[in-house]
Design a protein that fits this description.
This protein is an alpha+beta fold. The strands form ten sheets. The chain has an eight-stranded mixed sheet with strand order 23-24-25-27-5-30-29-28, with no helix packed on it. Strands 4-31-32-1-34 form a five-stranded mixed sheet. A five-stranded mixed sheet has the order 19-20-21-22-26. The longest helix is centred in the first third of the chain and has 28 residues, at 33-60. The protein is extended.
């Protein structure tokens, strides 16, 4: 949604600007308040210009336009006041809140989210984040990056799978081996002189400070070896020993009372299990272990909690990281560089700043005012400067939202209900670049649609965002008719000759707009198919390349040398077609003019070249190199298209017009409106030469190598 006025509130970034560009000894730095009004004003205007540019982009660039923009509302045909109307037996005004303005009605905050589709996945989902038209799906061992624009997918292994090997000689006094990482026990192997041996693994306690004076054998580890030595001298006193004997064990007299007593023993025992900072764990071998010891293992890696995608990197946060210990889900406001995270233990929402290494710098708790007691926070996401928080109360889910670009985001309080078709255990949600909302479980992604749920009165007419069963004061049904809003998607499509088909929402409209570029309307059978299907509200998406036919510019001489992509083709005659065999696959040739491309070619090329001797219109052959642009996943046309020269069609149907009649009709229509067909110019590739009439009714642009001397084009 768009802000109506420039945000002139004080911004933390203003202080950052002052500190960056002024010296501490300058008055501007010492007292930011002296100049903050001017600096903040300039800063706010600059930010507003940036936001305005983004707003214009979101209005006219299909990639980023908000699919939740209103395109359809409902007009109530009634003369009664809203006070007399009811929705499912409930008073109209109790069910719906009146919008304070038209802008709030068609562009205000959302009140309701409904499930529109769901898709299961084989991945175990931990976290999903969206940034810069890419979706980041974090699983226990893999980060999957889906590019929404290029439809590409990248998989990245999260953890280091490298095996670590330690080779060390073991004797009676050195039976501990330090490890710089905690090993995965399932991969740990310990041998002495190539024979498997028993061992004890100790994970170092980082809370215990390593005391070098207690490390008797100097291996950087305080273990049972030191405790064994301590047991031997326990209870010894300087009064019972010779001076030299006492000097050898006085390291254990921690309290300096001249006796190795229980207090000393307890203190030293507390240090067992500690090691130098480099060691995270150590292995203790049996007392009789002597020989060459080999330890192999893979690191035990902490669990990944969430992904933070930024411009340069995709940072995977582990449960051991400081921010991973603070919050369980996170999102980043890239405009302010402020993070917002959810802590499950405290059921809290935090605003967080991080250092460049992603350690926590500062954090503060924010209020989430749901009006619900004992609600549970689940996840948060940002879109267009607004913070959305997913929460659950009892068995229902809600989205709470608020403006994140205010000077102080003390609380968010706008609550919207989520209506789901099934019972899901939702673990998070995200918002893509077009403003679409998605919930996800551990193995499913659920798309939800945002709705505004208010009413407005304009010129004594009542409009609602959602169609309801409404009755008047006499309990009679109120007639309700849809009323279309010409929005950004309509404007874009209109420029390409496409009007919104009946009942098509913004999500489908966006797909149709992109389909214009993928499957262009052209002056041929398949091109007309594309345009007709799109006008009816269908994308030109297909699931197979099966038997895609491409018309050559004319009949090819199959007795000549034919090359496809510069590879000589071997010609084999079949009953109804010829096979052109190359090292890249078998091409089928029907009527010596229709080429069927094998399916594997689509994975290799966007276009192919065929060369050989082609027949011209005079019946003579001439050499020709011809490029065929491969279509995007289409089969034969769904809609049958005929020309006026289809004799079989004319014979099988009531066809009252001659070719001359049709030509005259088209010419007269073009004289009245020259833009009917002028803007549709293609080559003759998909059109069979025999089906082009002497006076074509459609403008044709022939391949330069084709002799068109016998053809008379319409002059437009």
């Amino acid at each position: 949604m768009r802000r109506e006025n420039i945000d002139l509130s004080y911004k933390k970034t203003t202080a950052d600007i002052v500190k960056k560009h002024f010296f501490p000894w300058q008055n501007t730095y010492k007292n930011i308040d002296l100049s903050r009004e001017l600096i903040n004003l300039v800063h706010s205007i600059c930010l507003e210009l940036v936001n305005e540019a983004k707003y214009v982009e979101a209005m006219y660039m299909p990639d980023v336009m908000d699919v939740n923009e209103e395109w359809l509302v409902y007009e109530l045909y009634t003369t009664e006041s809203v006070d007399n109307l009811k929705i499912d037996g409930i008073a109209f005004t109790e069910k719906l809140q009146k919008a304070s303005s038209i802008d709030e009605f068609i562009a205000g905050p959302y009140d309701l989210y409904k499930e529109v589709s769901s898709e299961s996945t084989t991945d175990t989902i931990i976290h999903i984040a969206n940034y810069n038209f890419q979706k980041y799906i974090l699983t226990p061992s893999l980060l999957r990056i889906d590019n929404a624009l290029k439809l590409t997918r990248t998989n990245i292994n999260i953890y280091n799978e490298e095996t670590i090997t330690i080779n060390k000689y073991i004797d009676y006094n050195h039976r501990d081996i330090g490890l710089d990482v905690v090993p995965d026990l399932s991969t740990l192997s310990v041998t002495i002189d190539d024979i498997d041996t028993h061992y004890n693994l100790t994970v170092c306690d980082s809370k215990i400070e390593f005391n070098e004076e207690l490390d008797l054998n100097g291996d950087g580890i305080i273990s049972n070896y030191e405790l064994m030595i301590l047991d031997q001298i326990r209870g010894k006193s300087k009064y019972d020993l010779e001076l030299e004997q006492w000097k050898a064990i006085m390291w254990a007299d921690i309290n300096n009372n001249g006796v190795i007593d229980e207090n000393d023993y307890r203190y030293i025992s507390m240090h067992v299990g500690s090691a130098i900072e480099e060691y995270k764990a150590f292995i203790t071998l049996p007392a009789n272990s002597i020989g060459q010891c080999v330890v192999t293992y893979k690191p035990q890696t902490p669990k990944a909690k969430f992904i933070i995608p930024t411009e340069q990197i995709q940072k995977i946060i582990l449960e051991t990281d400081t921010v991973g210990q603070l919050v369980d889900k996170i999102t980043l406001d890239h405009a302010t560089n402020i993070y917002y995270g959810i802590n499950y233990t405290n059921n809290a929402l935090y605003a967080i700043t991080l250092y460049d290494n992603f350690d926590v710098k500062t954090y503060s708790r924010l209020n989430v005012n749901t009006g619900l007691q004992d609600h549970r926070l689940i996840d948060c996401a940002l879109f267009n400067g607004y913070l959305f928080v997913l929460t659950k109360y009892e068995d229902k889910y809600y989205i709470i939202s608020g403006d994140a670009r205010l000077e102080y985001l003390e609380y968010i309080d706008h609550k919207a209900t989520i209506t789901l078709n099934n019972t899901y255990d939702i673990i998070g949600f995200y918002i893509d670049d077009s403003g679409s909302f998605y919930l996800y479980t551990s193995n499913r992604v659920i798309a939800i649609k945002a709705y505004r749920n208010k009413y407005v009165s304009i010129n004594n007419k009542i409009y609602t965002n959602i169609k309801y069963n409404i009755t008047d004061g006499n309990n009679k049904a109120v007639k309700i008719l849809p009323w279309n809003i010409f929005n950004s998607f309509d404007a874009i499509a209109y420029n390409f000759g496409l009007t919104r088909p009946y009942g098509i929402n913004n999500i489908s409209m966006k797909k149709l707009i992109f389909d214009i570029w993928k499957h262009r309307t052209e002056n041929n059978a398949i091109g007309i198919n594309y345009g007709l299907k799109r006008a009816l509200g269908f994308e030109n998406t297909y699931n197979s390349y099966y038997e895609v036919g491409y018309k050559l510019p004319s009949v090819i001489d199959t007795t000549s040398v034919i090359k496809i992509n510069n590879n000589i083709a071997q010609v084999t005659d079949n009953s109804s077609y010829k096979t052109l065999s190359t090292i890249e696959g078998d091409f089928k040739l029907y009527d010596d003019m229709t080429l069927i491309v094998p399916e594997n070619i689509y994975d290799l090329y966007n276009e192919i070249n065929i060369s050989g001797m082609f027949y011209n219109l005079n019946g003579y052959t001439q050499p020709l190199d011809y490029d065929i642009v491969l279509k995007d996943k289409h089969t034969y046309p769904d809609i049958e298209i005929y020309t006026i020269n289809d004799e079989l069609y004319k014979q099988s149907s009531i066809y009252p017009y001659t070719e001359e009649d049709i030509s005259d009709i088209i010419l007269s229509m073009e004289e009245e409106n020259p833009y009917i067909l002028k803007n549709i110019i293609t080559d003759a590739t998909p059109i069979h030469g025999a089906r082009i009439p002497a006076k074509p009714i459609l403008p044709i642009k022939f391949n330069p190598s084709v002799d068109t001397s016998n053809y008379k084009e319409i002059e437009l």
